[in-house]
Amino acid sequence: MIRIQREDYSVDEIVKALKRPGVGAVVVFSGCVRGASRDGAPVEWVEWDVYESMARKIFETIHREALERFGLLDAAIVHRYGRHRPGDNLVLIVTASAHRKEAFQACEWIMNEIKKKAPLWKKEILADGRERWIEG
Amino acid sequence: MKITLLLFASLRDRMKTNRLELDLPGGTVQDVLDHLSASYPQARDLLPRVHAAVNEEYREKEAPLRDGDVLALIPPVSGGAR
To answer: How many other CB atoms sit within 10 Å of the CB of residue B19?
Structure first.
């Protein structure tokens, strides 16, 4: 399952969608909007920009590679864009496998690949009114 | 050679647009960056740090462009722990 969307999502529904006979382990990474910038400044909003068509292709490639490399039974990659408040859901990675080891490893691998490759950008809008694009 | 240029994030803010249609005599990704650097001095410091995607695939700066290509300029992406 690949989803790139502005609106919120239900973690429970996505986990449920991945369950099937043979699945004995589901690992969830849930990333949310941090309320503090790197220098500690309070964050009012974040705005995520995405090159959606290219990000979708990259997510599809990462998804396919994760299934092959770790022998997963299924995986979900969900990322939001647009303006969101601290604490809001932002990114969800769910991996489903027969046993826990593969699901744990694959979940971290997928998130790292997204951070390396996906065209997604974050702008912080600080409580004092300043705005800045954050570079990795 | 007509190409479509897509701009995101910091580059979009600096250049005040998310899309440009360019008509150039041909060349590479780097030639487009040089052209933009001359035409958009407000973006000059960002341009050397961007990555390029041609038709949704990452490409080197030396990659040649063809008529009809979509060139996306990718500012450094937001990493960090999230």
So the answer is: 11
